[in-house]
Amino acid sequence: MQVLGIDIGGSGIKGAPVDTNEGQLVTTRHRIPTPDPSLPDAVGDVLAQIARHFDWTGPVGVTFPAVIKAGTACTAANVDKSWIGTNVAELTRAKTGCPALVLNDADAAGIAEMEFGAGKGHDGVVIMLTFGTGIGTAIFVNRQLLPNTELGHMEIRGKEGEQRASDGTRKRKGLTWAGWAKRVNEYIQRMDALFWPDLFIIGGGVANKAEQFLPLLSTRAEIRIAELRNEAGIIGAALAARQLAAGALPDDCRYIRV
Ligand code: BGC
Question: What is the pLDDT of residues 204-242, one digit of tens each?
């Protein structure tokens, strides 16, 4: 089946119809810069524009960079605080006229990687990490998602992990890849000590530059680079929203098993 996947990011909002059987975009994605300020109504208008661009009337899956409970944003670490308490699923339905499901961005990327990318067929404990403006996390146990983990905010020596080791921090501080990798090592080694995963999947914008830092990372667990790159969010959102067409509609991704 086809589902429209939309990935709401800090700089761009990207969408494309996804073939959920193949885990692939059906056509080139459509990208619109994120409105500034990125207030709910303005972002909702962009969602409508993207649906119109594809003449879409079917189910829509949307990622959002925050905790999402039953369609509602509960946190706003790197987005405007007015999102807290906004029902993003309702907003999407109202603006696009389509049935919609919304989930956390890292959870969506993780779902896509587990079903069609670096985690395909991988049982055990898998932790997806997305390095962008913040650090997003998604945990899978035997391919069952534990939704809304916020381990980018795990404290390391008095600071949030994402303040120390996100890609945003690398850029802002002008860190060398080696300097950044040292911070990432500290972060993933702490994660390893607390969760003992079998596999880490590293995604987000940095996945395209893996040769710069992957050889510098060291953990007990296996590390793989995400395979679906900047399409993982769109694909994962669409995969999660398949449930809309199946009739049984959980309002969020609590029960997702890839
Ligand atoms: C947010 C998470 C999000 C991550 C990546 C964090 O700051 O709290 O919800 O998944 O950034 O965008």
Answer: 999 999 999 999 999 999 999 999 988 999 999 999 999
* Residue 136 beta carbon below 6 angstroms from any ligand 1 atom: yes
Among 78, 83, 103, name the best residue to mutate to test ligand 1's pocket (greatest count of ligand atoms within 8 A of Cβ). 78
Domains of the chain: 2-107+231-245 (3.30.420.40), 121-227 (3.30.420.40)
Q: Cis check for the bond before 37: say yes or no (omega within 30 of 0).
A: yes
Contacts by 176-182, CB closer than 8 A, 24 or more apart: 177/209, 177/212, 177/213, 177/216, 178/216, 180/213, 181/213, 181/216, 181/217, 182/216
Alpha-carbon gap, residue 130 to 126, rounded angstroms: 13
23 C-alpha to ligand 1 centroid (Å): 23
- Give residue-wise pLDDT tens across range 91-140: 999 999 999 999 999 999 999 999 999 999 999 999 999 999 999 999 99
Can you give the pTM of this predicted structure? 0.96
Q: How does 4-38 read in b/e, with b if 16+ C-beta sit within 10 Å?
A: bbbbbbeeebbbbbbebeebebeeebbbbebeeeb
| Terminal Cα distance for the chain, rounded | 16
CB of 105 sitting under 6 A from ligand 1: yes
